[in-house]
């Protein structure tokens, strides 16, 4: 990887095209092949925008995810997905989003979906970047365990958010290892909740959680993290 003083990229997520927003509200009218085409067209559009902008690192725009975070719960066993949002009018604030019940051991036997997304990104960008003198790096983004734990309700098995985090940590770590094995050299671990709550929690505990999450891939890829909600 050549040394570039400042590499340009998007964090990971990218706005959905209007037609994808519309289609997502009427998925019952689409067949399996139609839905696959929707996803591929949306990814191709996001990739084209990033290439036209000349970014050094591009993503799939997370076009396969209904939300940068919430879609991951569909891959996790042991939870009962919330049936309906508690807020019907206006967008819910960060602390008003609904939560899922934990009903068993947290497992992800199919992974968390990012490896399939990365393979799709590689396939769709192969012809578009192969002729470029300095082709962009392809990046994958994965939610960290602390951020994922924030939408789960503690129960008798996992009594606190910290215990939920510890249960999710090996699932995320396994996903990161699978991404590296698939050839991904640029990975962002998104932990916005760490910055959101750092002012009232133990920051060193967050450092420990993050380090254990990424220890298996440290040094095997270019690793970054995404923190948001401003400077607490």
Structure description:
With 232 residues, the protein is of the alpha/beta class. Helices cover 38% and strands 14% of the residues. It has seven helices and seven strands, in the order H-H-E-E-E-H-E-H-E-H-E-H-H-E. The chain has helices at residues 18-24, 32-52, 114-129, 145-149, 161-181, 192-197, 203-214, and strands at 57-58, 77-80, 100-107, 137-143, 152-153, 186-190, 222-226. A four-stranded parallel β-sheet has the order 1-4-6-7. A three-stranded mixed β-sheet has the order 2-3-5. The longest helix is centred in the N-terminal third of the chain and has 21 residues, at 32-52.
How much is the radius of gyration in Å? Answer: 18 Å
Number of contiguous helices: 7
Low-confidence blocks of residues: none
- Report the structural category: alpha/beta
Q: SSE string, helix = H, strand = E?
A: HHEEEHEHEHEHHE
Main sheet record: 4 strands, parallel
Kindly report the average pLDDT value. Answer: 90
- Beta-sheet strand percentage? 5-15%
Tell me the span between the first and last alpha carbons. 34 Å
Strand order of the largest sheet: 1-4-6-7
Shape: globular
Q: Helix share of residues?
A: 25-40%
What's the count of strands? 7
